[in-house]
Amino acid sequence: MPEITSTSQIQNSAAAKAQTDLASNFDDFLTLLTTQLTNQDPLNPTDTTEFTNQLVNFSSVEQAIATNQNLEALVQLEQISQQNMMGATMINYLGKSIGTNLNVAALNNGDAAWNIDLGSSAAAVKYDVYNQNGDIVFSETQNSAAAGEQQYSWNGTTNSGTQAGDGAYYLVVTAETEGGSSIDVDYSFKGTATSIETINGEAVLKVGDVPIGLSYITSVTEPTTTDPSA
User: Fold this and answer.
1) Taking burial as the number of CB atoms within 10 A of a residue's CB, which of 31, 121, 163, 226 is the most buried?
2) Closest of 129, 136, 123 to residue 182, by C-alpha
3) Which domain holds residue 137?
4) SS3 of 185, please?
5) Does 200 share its domain with 146?
6) pLDDT tens, 141-179?
7) How far apart are CA 207 and CA 193, in angstroms?
8) For the segment 210-225, what is each residue's pLDDT rounded down to a tens digit?
9) 115 and 79 share a domain?
10) Phi-psi group of 78: left, alpha or beta (phi > 0 → left; psi -120 to 50 → alpha; rest → beta)
11) Are residues 20 and 120 in the same domain?
């Protein structure tokens, strides 16, 4: 389930810090005022006009800080509301087949496959597989590739010869024509949403080990079932 931010976190804001600083400064001001009034010359009393003006200024600043606190609280409550609505939407997607145009696939027991679509026939193609840290773990080149939809498979063997662990991996395909012109490459991924998690403060659907943000979902359909009697 996505994490829900507590309203108590709203207190940790710039406005709250400003109010604390103002209270400290106001205490210092009152100390100075009391000291000066206590030690003033009875025959030549201190003009309190300046102190009165400063008291008015303190009051104005305090009201401005209170207004900022209220605005910050409203913004954060709106963010919490949006996150809750997003979580509720994602709950409806659990068990559904989720489609996305991300270049992602899950490596599971030495098997990962990406669906790609080349805009035209290629004379040179390079496949780079990245882990979730953005590091290239495997690279491969081919002398040619046909245009259209196709699948690229990877057995999890890295460039160093070790076996990569299960999880989400990203494929970047660089394709060129015989003349060296770049070819457009589209990606697609589909799988059944199994859970909801929060990653870096954002609620995402998990399709196996693959995280998919709500904004990246391109289709939601009922999963295809196979009749065992067929």
Assistant:
1) 121
2) 123
3) 98-221
4) strand
5) yes
6) 999 999 999 999 999 999 999 999 999 999 999 999 999
7) 5
8) 888 888 888 888 877 6
9) no
10) alpha
11) no
Is the four-CA dihedral 173, 174, 176, 181 of positive or negative sign? positive
What sign has the CA pseudo-torsion 64, 68, 74, 75? positive
Enter the pTM of the model: 0.58
135 plus 192 within the same structural domain: yes
Q: What is the rounded distance in angstroms from the CA atom of residue 137 to the CA atom of residue 51? A: 69
Task: For residue 210, count other CB atoms closer than 10 A to its CB.
Answer: 23
Q: Where are the alpha helices (DSSP H) in the chain?
A: 14-38, 49-93
Domain co-membership, 50 together with 151: no
Query: Is there a domain that residue 190 lies in?
Result: yes
Instruction: Say how many domains are in the chain.
Output: 2
The identity of residue 182, as a single letter, is S
Residue 213 sits in the same domain as residue 128: yes
Q: Are 5 and 83 in contact (CB under 8 A)?
A: yes
Distances (CA, A) of 139 to 114, 153, 171, 186: 14, 12, 10, 19
